[in-house]
Amino acid sequence: MNIIDELSWRGLINQQSDEEGLRKLVDEKDISLYCGMDPTGDSMHIGHLLPFMTLKRFGDAGHHPYIVIGGATGSIGDPSGKKAERPMQTMDQVNHNVEALSNQAEKIFKDFTMVNNYDWTEPIGILDFLRDYGKLFNVNTMLNKEIISSRLEAGISFTEFTYQILQSLDFLTLFRQHDIQLQVGGGDQWGNLTAGLDLIHKAEGQEAKVYALTIPLLLKADGTKFGKTAGGAVWLDAEKTSPYEFYQFWFNQDDKDVINLLKKFTFLTQDEIAALAEKVKTAPEERVAQRTLAEEVTKFVHGEEALKTAEKITDVLFSGEIQALTTDEVAQAFHGVPSEEISSDEINLVDLLIAANVDKSKRQAREDIQNGAIRINGERLTDTTIMIDPKDSFDGKYIVIRRGKKKYFLAKIK
């Protein structure tokens, strides 16, 4: 199957500059292509995954994917999708984020070539920039692009206005140095991508074979934007979003969304996904499609061992056998639950519930204990006089408290 047909089936194509030309090109030869990423933070989130997973699909088909880390563009600020100016980062922040993102991307996308646009942008002087590149951009054309026109009422600085030129310069440089012929980006990047095509055609001639392809904004079946949780973004950094939390995010997807997500975020075949779609129809309560989605994406981002840990934590929390967890697994499993620091001294169970903010009063704590609603590290305790030694569990670092069937609390030992 042609890679363009593959992307189309998965719903990964929003806009193309020349579908027929690109389809012919990828049939004729293995091409080089790229997607850029600005260092606005020190970790990618799942919103970054689709463009780069799309590049990987090209790579699996024999093509040559590049990632451009925006050490230069990230110091300017992309106006796309923003109603106001981005806060300007210091160069120290930009460099820190560049290093963190580069390390993360190299770990996940092992077969990609990675470059930093700071390397070819920094040596260009202001006069050379204006004479060699600025002269090739028509202000009226720039103003008519959505990324600029949407900001005119609120106002846009000259700094962010020039972002489009810098991103276009990336495409021109990569075309010249690495014969890169395709740029992939999110749907909000169409104006920037086509500006790059225009620059190459002006600088290299209309016969230059270069193309742009964007990926659609991913929406859930209810029309809301995909990828956010009550706690914010779902990060690829295990310190920000643990592999267990990451796994659970995918496992908890709605039946209406799961097949669409399997197409976009996994490398399963059409037949495999069709079989899972049938499972959703005939046995939705088994959540086979959701489990497969969680397994595939967690393994891709975090690796096999992290997946095994996430599955173990899931099984342990379902069974209630908390003691089967290691100390590190406890930290993962209860990363987002209410927590309080307590002393390492031995403490009465009632006082522990107050100290951990499980109950607001001793009377309520006693009632919960006597009613069998309290479990400490998985064990149900009904004696209000019992003493708890924090040093006895999880290397003396944590006490896991459960009230009722699902409400967890974590006492962190000072």
Automatic annotation (TrEMBL):
Chain sites annotated for binding L-tyrosine: 34, 163, 167
Quaternary assembly: Homodimer.
Protein name: Tyrosine--tRNA ligase
Family: Belongs to the class-I aminoacyl-tRNA synthetase family. TyrS type 1 subfamily.
A family per Pfam: tRNA-synt_1b
Function: Catalyzes the attachment of tyrosine to tRNA(Tyr) in a two-step reaction: tyrosine is first activated by ATP to form Tyr-AMP and then transferred to the acceptor end of tRNA(Tyr).
Database matches in InterPro entries: aa-tRNA-synth_I_CS, aa-tRNA-synth_Ic, Rossmann-like_a/b/a_fold, S4_RNA-bd, S4_RNA-bd_sf, SYY-like_C, Tyr-tRNA-ligase, Tyr-tRNA-ligase_bac-type
Native organism taxonomy: Bacteria, Bacillati, Bacillota, Bacilli, Lactobacillales
NCBIfam families: tyrS
Localization terms from the record: Cytoplasm
Binding-site residues, ATP: 228
